[in-house]
Amino acid sequence: MPLSPEQKAEIESQRAGGERTLRAVSPGMEARLYTAHEVLDHGFVRVIDYMGDDAAICQAARVSYGRGTRSVQNDEGLIRYLMRHWHSTPFEMCEVKFHVKLPVFVARQWIRHRMANVNEYSARYSILDREFYIPAPEQLAAQSTQNNQGRGDVLQGEEAQRVLDLLRDDAMRSYDHYEAMLSQDGQQGLARELARMNLPANIYTQWYWKTDLHNLLHFLRLRADAHAQYEIRVYAEVMCEIVADWVPAAFAAFRDYRMDAVSLSAQGAAALKRRLAGEVVTQENSGMGAREWREFQEVWG
């Protein structure tokens, strides 16, 4: 299970103990604080701490004192203006710290976003648990024939079962050998920092990941996208729900101007104008490559 009874008891204790504060708080984030949201088969995401809210973004943009005297409607309008015109600094005034449990191969993809403070569970000092990510059958897919970093058709029947059996058997065998190397029963036992090299990339790790809202939204725009790898996308989708409760005006603007928006290259804009003028535009006379043309057609028909 993602959470042990001891971890659940600790979370309940954290949520039960409240402290009076003079700083601005977000009611939506207060409701989320410390709660573990389960992801994949053994993973989770939970908020450990945060700073700021929608009003903090506006306060920074106006460089005002206190929470200001502007109405919520004016604040929403300002936030939408800032998002629409790519003013990033006010969004950096909000920060959040997550506790994430995730497979190692997802962590290695995640860490490519070099805009956070990270502290990961150390397998040099501690022994990792026997917990591995094993995909659900519907997530077992062949290599895409059109995208070198994507998935194609879902594996079926005996082939799917063969892959699942290999994943489980390899993970368990590797962990058995890991324990055997660490064992001090009749031997000195290998150092933990060396024994860990034998573990597979689907074993679970944990970290604290702290970032500001601007960089978090950039992460979510890429990783909550339909084209992102499923195993990191499901984490991003849970984080989207959390951010929507934390800074609802900022997230609504982000969804409108980033996640659900469409951007065009100069060639794409020109092709669209020519189409609107009644001209027949093809890939050959559009100035776009095959992949860009295909993406253009997916949006504009």
From TrEMBL:
Q: Which Pfam families match?
A: Thy1
Spell out the catalytic residues: 223 (involved in ionization of n3 of dump, leading to its activation)
Q: Where does dUMP bind?
A: 109-112, 120-124, 196, 223
Q: Does the keyword Protein biosynthesis apply?
A: no
What CDD domains is this protein classified in? Answer: ThyX
Q: Which NCBIfam families match?
A: thyX
Give the protein's recorded name. Flavin-dependent thymidylate synthase
Q: Which organism is it from?
A: Paracoccus tibetensis
**What gene, per UniProt, encodes this protein?**
thyX
